[in-house]
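// run 5 | inverse folding | seed 20
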């Protein structure tokens, strides 16, 4: 995370650091066009409650 610009001392991060981290982890160069025209999907996962015996 430091390699891509996160400053842990200051404690605040901008979009650029998150994009740089995504690029570093995936090897995919993120372009403005990708962000603007991408289709984003979401989902909801229901976590079952476990009741003690």
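// decoded
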């Amino acid at each position: 995370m430091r390699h891509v610009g996160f400053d842990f001392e200051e404690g605040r991060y901008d979009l650029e650091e998150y994009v740089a981290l995504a690029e570093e982890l995936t090897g995919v160069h993120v372009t403005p066009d990708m962000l603007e025209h991408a289709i984003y999907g979401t989902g909801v996962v229901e976590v079952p409650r476990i009741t003690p015996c």
